[in-house]
Amino acid sequence: MKHDRSGFWKAICAAPDDDTPRLVFADYLDDHGDADRAAFVRAQCEGERLDPDDPRRVDLEVRATALLHEHRATWVEELPKWVRRSGVTFRRGFPAGLMANAVQILRNASALASRTVIEDVYVEFFRATRPAETFAASPLPPRLRLFRNNSGGLAVLRPLLSAMTGLTGLNLYSPCMYDGDARVANFAEVLALPSVRRLTRLTLFLSEDYPTVVRRDMLAALAAAPFESLRELTLYPVALRSGSLAGLLRAPWASGLTALRLSHDLGPECLEVLAGAGSLAGLRAVGFGVTERGAAGLAAVLNSPHLGNVTELTLNGAAAEGCADAVASSAVAARLRALNWNVGPFNGVIPDPRKTWAEGERLLGVAELPNLLRLFFGTLYSAGPAGAFRGDVLAASRGFPALRHLILSAVADPAGVDAVAASPRLPELKAIGVLRYGLGATEDERAAAFRALADRHAPRVTVLPIE
Question: H-helix or E-strand containing 328?
């Protein structure tokens, strides 16, 4: 990074897992006229040390997000020119994650290891053995905490993952796709690598390009994997059958999970398996999709005695009539600190988004979620169903007295946002994330409308853009 404060930066790079040199640097920034950057460093460092259910963490995340939005263009310029700016993520005050292709990462691995605190890399097109071995021999892999790879086979993943001795998180998209008849066996071998056995977080996407029997066998290999401390599993197969889900939840490592996020299309049979899984007593976060037959199954899951510690719920495509009532009347409602209501589309069966939208609006009117801190409402993609978010429904609700952060990844009617921001029934609200799409026909119109919206509610409520 291009700092004239090289002594501070060398200390940070030499101890990337230690907050102390970062906070010392924040003091220096304060003393030299860069209060916003100092506040950002402190907010991200302190927030990460707090429990996700701590209201102070939400406030710190809001503060950090607002500062990053204002200064991101300047702060990413501290990175080398070849780094793709749109793919940079920040953690603990500094750029921590990036996207690169194999040529870029090979050429710059040593510099990244010594001159940055990059700990999360997504490598595109890393499919040949020799460049993977060359990268594995560089100083960067041991410093990585999260690695994301698309379609790598055993010959590529084995040297890479073997060198990543500090890895805690791994995202695999279509692993071993091109390994032919050895796909399942090679995937099982990847899961048995020492660095993978020690993972605490795993995200796995199994493409519909795999034959059904291969997806089934890969899920069986996942269930048999010798994980030692897995805590979070995010799984996106195209179609998760009840037998495969039951096998996963019987795995020895399942009882250690604190977060389980599954694919969109869970039918009644899968929901029944989820509701009856005694291995999930430690879950704090759960996410799954609900097909248009799924309201009764949803109610069973949310009232399961095995899910008595859940405080974060993600629902994808909850289009069945009765889903809103199932959430509102559930045992989990009083405990929820975070709720993500995703309209879709998503992987797997795609329910009618208009029905999911209607159920979500009904939820806003009938639910009492007295401890909810975060609410995500909308679609995972930029274009939601027709119509705008009904802010007047939320503004009039008595069910969200603790809400601090509302994220609207959906078309937002400015009048509805105004109603929410000004509502006396939302006394703790600190921030509203608004999708700029829909605020105007041109980019200039959208930018002007967003600025006007943000200015109307500052400083009591921070309006943040969702690009």
Answer: helix 323-328
